[in-house]
Write a structure and sequence with these properties.
Blueprint lengths: L1 H17 L25 E7 L2 H11 L3 E5 L3 E7 L2 E7 L15 E5 L3 H9 L5 E9 L2 E7 L5 E7 L5
Parallel strand pairs: 1-4, 5-8
Antiparallel strand pairs: 2-3, 3-4, 6-7, 7-8
Amino acid sequence: MKLKTLIVLVLLIQSSLIMGQSLNSESSEEDRSSALAGFAIDSQITMFYYTDIGPATKFYGDIIGLEKTLDWSWVIFFQTGPSSFIGLVKEGEGAFHRVQPHNAVMLSLVTNDLDLWYARLKGKDDVTFLKPLGNSGPIRSFMVEDPGGYTVEFFQWLPSPE
């Protein structure tokens, strides 16, 4: 278990350096809440685990169109924002977790181009929609399922009713 933890730590540090992210933030104190003063988060990576990484790679790269920023065959990163990423991990050696029969994790992608994203994905035969485009509370959204059963939500904030 210690070896796996070390591998994950090294992977995160290397990916941070590969993607040009600094391990030390130059953010000012006023940019952070007082509870987190002195603590910086430079980047964010959400890891999803797959038995077969191929279909997920095609889904996030070819179908959704995210930019691949790292490919070590057993782990692949796609950029979702200026400093946020999704990591696809092949189950097995080096993987910290095992694939689960039901995934209780949802990737939420916030965009002001929701209609464009919906039209892009609606035209694809190999996209499974879990929720059609619609309003729900303070957001407008739709949801699709990736090849590993993870929910991917695209949403935009609605103006607050004032």
